[in-house]
Amino acid sequence: MQRVRFLLGSRACLQRARLRTTLLRDTEATRCVSSRYLRTSQARLKFFHQNYDYQPDYKDALSQSFQYSEEVQSALAEGRPVVALESTIISHGMAYPHNAQTANAVEDIIRSNGCVPATIAIMDGKVNIGLTPEHLEKLGEMGAKSHKTSRRDLAVVMAHKWTGSTTVSASMILAHRAGIKVFVTGGIGGVHRGAEQSMDVSADLYELGRTPIAVVCAGAKSILDIEKTLEVLETQGVTVATYGSTKAFPAFYTPESGYESPFNVSDPDTAARIIEANARLQLNSGLVFAVPIPTEDAAEAQGIQDAIDQSLREARQQQIRGKDETPFLLKRVSELTGGKSLASNIALVRNNARIGSDIAKSLAKLTGRRPFSNLSRPLEDNDKAAKLLVIGGVAVDVTATIQASDLPTTLQSPSAPNTSSYLYTSTPGSIKQSIGGVGRNMAQAAQQCGQTTCLASVVGDDDFGKRVTQALHEAGMDISDIKTIPHQRTAVYNAIHGPHGDLIAAVADMDIFSHLSPSMVCTAIKQIKPSLVAFDGNIASETMISIGKTCRALNIPAFFEPTSVPKSIKAMHPALLQTEALQFASPNEYELMAMVDAAPLAIHSLGTDLQIDLPEYPSRYLDAAVALSTCIPTLFLKLGAWGCLLVTRSKASVRCKYFPVDVLSESKVVSVTGAGDSFVGTVLANLLGQREPLEADLDARLGILSSAVLKGQAAA
Questions:
Q1: Which sequence ranges form a coiled-coil region, renumbered to this chain (predicted)?
Q2: SS in 3 state form for 528-577?
Q3: Which residue out of 86, 107, 137, 589 is catalytically annotated?
């Protein structure tokens, strides 16, 4: 069993405690410094904006331009398979009401096959990933009145707040931005006949060369020059494979075009492995899985060819070109074949939806993106399934440490509280990055103590997110429940430490944790049914309330790690406390005082039966801890170098016990970052390792809890 060094007793923590105590004793002076600093900071910020170019965060702007249906958003966050669909096939591919009926039928096929459909369109200038039935009906009725939107048209349609039906190329772009890996359509565009004179080549082919998404289709539309289309796809580096037992490349209405694909794939698992390998190699190009139309639905080849030839002649005579040509040809071919081509069109789209959803399911299974609902199996006798579920933050820690040798002699003392000389200038030091986050620290500490643990969290689709998941995987942690949220930043904790490890200032960018929604965490708790649920202060109050209600319904105790003073008061929401599920908390002294102040009812101390001899510093917080125990029965009060004060209550009776710690020599201190989280993780692991029930009498309960604290301090 690995040992986790308990760092709360370090000299650095002792100096931090002294610094904070000094500041608390002189609150008026602190207010003056804060006010002066605020005024100075505002002036510096104004100067910056006046003298330097300001670049807005376009990734945030992009996320604000996307609107996800509730069904799609939930599926993406939970890692369930999603299949993207274009909308031009609705507005320009078929006449009303066949278009709306087919769109709804295709979505139903995808749902019945265990996936979530995400039809893509621009509605009133906003990208919609997933359309409502009303939206589908609206597009069907509008038909060609909606703007046919390819890559070149996206910005214009959005800027004018128009309604746009997205082509294959635009749908690929938007689906990729949304984090969707599989896209289903009828047929891709290609090289038009006579392109050697007109230079008319569909944007679909170029998009396939630069957007890594799998396109499931019935090949290229048979109105096109299929031979040249395959040549362009080869030039663009696009993987093309026929989905079937042969390499015959389909021609939309008919299963064979007379040309062959470079490869063939006969099952969804193989297709999924190809998609995964394409992503792993970061080829940044798309893939085409060409699905032949079922023989029973195929149109008669010669009749279709005659209709296409006549339609092409009419298009040339009427000088119909560009984006208007394909809709005209499809409509005219349908008329000339007496509707037989339309029936084939509808049949092939439905078939593609079935195949595409099979591939999406296999891909989800292969990449391990299990939904929250599969966090774990119910516990069984002698099972190794997770008893502890940790819900909270995983982040990148960026720590800057100032070099002592470059400071004035008066500032090199570890007890010096003055940090004013660090401000408004650069200071030599070292900077390092590591993987942290309160939830992650707790979960890893519990796991290293031998307790099977599951961590539920979220990361952004940025470089930090990739680094976090890779680092956790390399550390041996299960990353299948670390969900990637499109268009969001991975959490970052940026700290500045003094030369002796004391915290000077820090910035925590934790906005992404608002995406840990109530529905996600409640589903997780219901599925895993852990013995204990721990959550940190990074998640939203609404999510905490849902955790409390779900834990209460399942009779599961909950443990709260406050994380910081501002976040600690979230747990004082009346709706959460009323569930009575919140049985444990681990505040430090400052978080304790904030929680007492924020308590929704007049809490008071019942300390008449307390007989405890405490050092002066821990004794300052005893009354507040006893008072808070009326809301949260058991508190592990973290006091830095002063150790831990345990307070536990049963009705009107209270028990307390104090646990001092040995101060480590400064040479043994590696880092103080995450020390409190690691302590909590070991306490959690050892609470679950106890054989006696916590519902025992109060003195026995105190003994059980004390054992957990001691093992936590020893990190054994």
A1: none
A2: HCCCEEEEECCCCHHHHHHHHHHHHHHCCCEEEECCCHHHHHHHHCHHHH
A3: 86
